[in-house]
Structures are given as structure tokens and as C-alpha cells.
Specification:
Length: 305
């Protein structure tokens, strides 16, 4: 391993101890960040973890809405995001004003927001969900209630497929990274690796989801690899997950569905920035009290399920 990387990782581990901090990292983070993390997970696991950990400082290596969700659930903890510019274009596709207008126009359906939203949008929502539990969350809502699902139209369409009889309105948002995968990418790889199982994140287009052996959140994919008994996988989600999969299942083969599966925002978090954040405990992510209570209600409703 590169000497500079190793030294920086050692310095981070030492500083982490001194500051009593915990590093949470999403599966899409760079390999060297995953290596210093105390916990790696999907957005649902990380928000649960952030809420339950008995520590004062959380360094969140992910994107802004993830750190914000952690701060929302644990306002007493200091949650730092090593680069405040690490955002999520999908989350930016819905604003609280737009949600209020749309909700009114549709006659006040129950708003289900994907965790990839700002705290202000969560505050306008009845319940939150992640890609790991969206189908279950919608299934728990009263059958007669109309639903406005936002902001991801692809995850929304996937959920709607489970409840064809329900009124589910979709928001026109999408993840630019996952939308980049085409059905042809999968078919080409299938031809090269006919025995490979196809794992697809529900943020991909319906034409790609249709080709999946398993549609799952990032941790759902890890679980499927463990349980399927297969040896080869075509993976249609951000490439960072391959570091974790290759490390945990070195005998299996993983093929990234498309070279476009790289999230530039996730990659804004570097070891240097992580080190600096631990040193200064900045930049802190906080949710103003005026938004916090309403947003928290939506997230806690989900966590109670
Ligand atoms: P997961 O909920 O599967 O971790 O995905 C988060 C995300 O940002 C997907 O692009
Ligand atoms: Fe947002 Fe897509 Fe990046 Fe996930 S992969 S953080 S949804 S832009």
C-alpha cells in the first residue's frame, strides 16, 4: 500500500481514539476511507448506527443528507462531514416549497420521502424510507390513502410495481449516476458472463431493474452475495461497493455494470479531509430546531417499523 496513505490512515486512527470519535462510511466511499471506518453500511444502517452509538463525535463519510439524518436523530452528538460540498443531486431535486405545492395540488396524499432528501423536505413528509425498506414502508400505510413518493421516480416505480391497485404519485427526480446504466450494458455483460447473477439498485431505470436477479439496496446486495451461493455477479450500483465485496468475498468475481457508476459527490471525501475533520471537528452538520422536530418524526416513523 502507498506509504502516504498508510501514514495518514494511522494518524486518523490515533486521532479518532483521542477525540472519542467514530467514523461511519457508506459503501460508495473510496477504498482507503472504508479501511479506516468503524462501520460501513447503507443509508438505513448508518442512520440507525448514528442514533444508537454512545459517542460524542461522528465523522460521517458519505454525502450531506446522510450526515444531516444522523444529526437529526442525535442533535446532542457532533456530526461532521469532511466536505460540505459532498451533496446529492437526487436530494436537490425536491425542495420543501415544491413538495407543499404538489401535495396541495394532489389533494393531500401521504408523502413518503426517500432518505435522499434534505431535512426540510423530510419535515414536509409523513414518513421516510430508504432503498432497503421502501416497499415495506409503503405497504404499512393505510390502503385507501394516496401516496406521493419522492424524489426518485425509479425507486417509486419499483415500489408501485408491488401495489398496482394503489394511488402512488411519482416525483420526477432521479440519480444521475444510476440513470447512466442502460439495459444494453447488462445484456453485454450477461453475454460475457452467462452464469453471473445481476444485482440492481432500485435507483436504476425500470428497463435495467427488469433484468435483475436481485433488486436491492447496497447492503441487500452484500447479503445476497453471501446467501446466493453464486460465484459471479454483475453489479449495477456505485463502484465503491466493489471494494467491500472483493474484500469480504475474495473468491467471487464482480463486474461493474457500467463505467459510469461513479458518484462524484461520494468521492469528494478524501483521507486528507477526513483527517482535517477529526482534527478540527469541523465542518459540523446541524439541523435548525425549527425543522428538526418535523423531520425527525418522519425518520422515526420509519425506524419504528
Ligand atoms: P443505499 O440506501 O442503498 O445505501 O443507497 C444510497 C444511495 O445514495 C444510492 O445512490
Ligand atoms: Fe445521490 Fe446518486 Fe450519489 Fe447516491 S449515487 S449519493 S443518489 S447522486
Amino acid at each position: 500500500m502507498d506509504k502516504e496513505i498508510k501514514e495518514l490512515q494511522e494518524a486518523i486512527s490515533k486521532l479518532k481514539e483521542e477525540k472519542g470519535a467514530v467514523i461511519l462510511a457508506h459503501y460508495y466511499q473510496r477504498r482507503e476511507i472504508q479501511e479506516v471506518a468503524d462501520y460501513i453500511g447503507d443509508s438505513l444502517e448508518l442512520s440507525r448506527r448514528a442514533a444508537s452509538l454512545p459517542v460524542g463525535v461522528i465523522v460521517f463519510c458519505g454525502v450531506h443528507f446522510m450526515a444531516e439524518t444522523a444529526a437529526l436523530l442525535s442533535p446532542e452528538k457532533r456530526v461532521v462531514l469532511p466536505d460540505l460540498e459532498a451533496g446529492c443531486p437526487l436530494a436537490d431535486m425536491a425542495t420543501p416549497e415544491e413538495v407543499r405545492l404538489r401535495r396541495e395540488a394532489l389533494g393531500h396524499p401521504l408523502v413518503v420521502c426517500y432518505v435522499n432528501t434534505s431535512a426540510a423536505v423530510k419535515g414536509e413528509s409523513y414518513i421516510c424510507c430508504t432503498s432497503a425498506n421502501a416497499v415495506e414502508v409503503v405497504g404499512k400505510l393505510p390502503e385507501e390513502a394516496a401516496v406521493l413518493f419522492l424524489p426518485d421516480r425509479n425507486l417509486g416505480a419499483y415500489v408501485k410495481g408491488f401495489y398496482p391497485q394503489r394511488a402512488i404519485f411519482l416525483w420526477p427526480g432521479y440519480c444521475p449516476v444510476h440513470e447512466g446504466v442502460e439495459a444494453e450494458d447488462i445484456l453485454r455483460l450477461k453475454e460475457l458472463h452467462p452464469r453471473a447473477k445481476v444485482l440492481v439498485h432500485p435507483e436504476c431505470k425500470p428497463s435495467v431493474v427488469e433484468l435483475a436477479d436481485k433488486v436491492a439496496s447496497t447492503s441487500g446486495m452484500v447479503k445476497y452475495v453471501r446467501e446466493s451461493g453464486a460465484g459471479e455477479f454483475i453489479v449495477a450500483t456505485e463502484k465503491g461497493i466493489l471494494h467491500h465485496l472483493a474484500k469480504v468475498y475474495p473468491e467471487a468475481k464482480f463486474y461493474l455494470a457500467s463505467p459510469r457508476l461513479e458518484c462524484p459527490d461520494m468521492k469528494k471525501i478524501t483521507l486528507e479531509k477526513c483527517y482535517k475533520s477529526l482534527l478540527t471537528l469541523e465542518p459540523r452538520v446541524q439541523v435548525p430546531p425549527s425543522v428538526r422536530e418535523r423531520a425527525r418524526r418522519a425518520v422515526e416513523r420509519m425506524l419504528r417499523l
